Amino acid sequence: MMESKKIVIGIVKNGEDVLIIKRAKKEQDLIWGFPGGKIELGELPEEALVREVKEETNLDCRIFKSITKRAHPVHDIEILSYSLEVISGEIKILNISEIEEVKWINKKDISKYLKNIDEKVMEEVLR
Fold it and tell me: What pTM did the predictor assign?
């Protein structure tokens, strides 16, 4: 049996704000999301997430803690979620073909942008 694909997502917070990205290409009905992406061959999930966040937002981050591991509701994908803290950098879109917008929003407004958030991820966002 083939192992399911794994992707990583990061909850990056700054005080009361949480970082979200708007993808240039819509994935199903997903427009806004948390930064993250696929784990490349030979990469640890944590390394992949730090790399993806840098590629998508230009922010250097470090993993603060693991939040949850869950199956995607539709696809054969395992989603690993982590909480990250920013070490340095200014938000800048480095790949306009992939990312349309990156912004900080107040954590209380998260449901205006994202639907069907995993319960443990939502707890971390609102913490």
Answer: 0.89
119, containing H or E segment:
helix 119-126
**Which pLDDT score is estimated for 1?**
44
- DSSP, collapsed to helix, strand or coil, labels residue 106 as strand
pLDDT digits (tens, 9 = 90+) for 1-38: 456 689 999 999 999 999 999 988 776 666 899 999 99
CA distance from start to end of the chain: 38
For the record, the structure tokens of 54 come out as: 């840098």
Domains, the chain: 5-126 (3.90.79.10)
Q: Concatenated DSSP letters for 2-70?
A: PPPEEEEEEEEEETTEEEEEEEEEEETTEEEE-SEEEPPTT--HHHHHHHHHHHHH--EEEEEEEEEEE
